[in-house]
Design brief:
Largest sheet: 4 strands, antiparallel
CATH class of the largest domain: Mainly Alpha
Strand content: 15-25%
Number of helices: 4
CATH architecture of the largest domain: Orthogonal Bundle
Number of strands: 6
Shape: elongated
Radius of gyration: 22 Å
Order of helices and strands: HEEEEHEEHH
Length: about 180
């Protein structure tokens, strides 16, 4: 019973790390990468839609992204979404294609981006701790209902803490990796 709970808890924690990694991919470094704008939500015919579903995104040069919409009518919507995002980029629209020049990061912008990364990492920490808290409550309930012995419950809490420590470390590693990317000139 506790093994099932720990397996379920680990899956939730793994999902938290995956969400963090996806989130961090969208934070700009000094290089052009399609992941920067893929998940940008564009209002397309009144429905928020990820940009990756509306256009082909490529990086023909290290400092340039090109976005070729499948539907040319969506150009203006894509342009608006880019301008409204926290990317700080200005789209260049030629009627068929949007070009995004990725400028080199200034030191001030790097500091801002590191703060954003730290905030997202802290949110992931909180999420992992909340998952741990829920699992601890479940173990306590199992113990109260006499579904597990006291020793099994204690062993379960120890395993839960080891699991939590492992995933907190993974979250920290993801954050450190992204901060290192941002710091690269």
């Amino acid at each position: 019973m506790i093994k099932d709970l720990l397996r379920e808890t680990e899956n939730k924690m793994k999902k938290t790390v995956e969400v963090l990694d996806t989130d961090l991919r969208g934070i700009r470094t000094g290089r052009a990468t399609p992941a920067l704008v893929e998940r940008l939500m564009v209002v397309y015919y009144g429905v928020p839609t990820p940009l990756e579903q509306l256009a082909t995104i490529s990086a023909p040069e290290p400092q340039l992204l090109t976005i070729r919409p499948y539907d040319p009518a969506s150009l203006k919507s894509i342009e608006r979404a880019i301008l409204a995002s926290e990317l700080g980029l200005t789209p260049n629209n030629d009627g068929k294609l949007i070009r995004l020049a990725i400028p080199r990061l200034t030191q001030e912008r790097r500091v801002e981006l590191v703060k954003i990364v730290k905030k997202r990492v802290e949110e992931a920490h909180i999420s992992v701790r909340n998952i741990r808290s829920d699992a601890k409550n479940d173990i306590r309930d199992f113990e109260k209902e006499k579904l597990v012995t006291e020793d099994e419950a204690e062993r379960g809490r120890e395993d839960l803490q080891k699991l939590t420590d492992r995933y907190i470390q993974k979250v920290d590693e993801s954050g450190a990796r992204k901060e290192k990317e941002i710091a690269e000139v």
